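User: My collaborator sent over this chain with a note saying "see what the structure looks like." That's all I know about it. Can you take a look?
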Amino acid sequence: MCRTIGRAVMALVSLLVLAAPGPAARADVPTAATPSRSGSHLAMRNEMRAVIDAERVTLEALNARFRQSADAEAGLAIQREIAQLKVQTELSLLRIQARHARAAGRATVADAIERAIREIESPPVPLPAGIRPVPAPGTPATPAPTR
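Assistant: Without extra context I'll predict from the sequence alone. Here is the result:
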């Protein structure tokens, strides 16, 4: 499920980063930032492609090891390596997008991507039913009703 959420976040963020105009960019007014912006998109795409290509090579090696594994325990360990590789690849792609968004002056988009990265790295832990979190010091124990 985490992988599915990560992929959805990555797809959404990709669309935001690639489709959002820069602060000074408008479709009807060419600016000096336009050529460098497209160059930046090309650089980002090339970085992302390199990460994906590296993942593919590593994944092929892990799959080869998996096919040759002698027992279930070794196979399970390799499957865990594959899962970790995929998460790390997603995080790398998101970091690239965040860095490029920030460099292009899209701090809000970069902040959203960085929040997504933090959530993937440290997902919220669900509490068992009937247990409420302890409020932080200085906050009311029960939330005040809103009207």
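A starting point for your reply to your collaborator: The radius of gyration is 21 Å.
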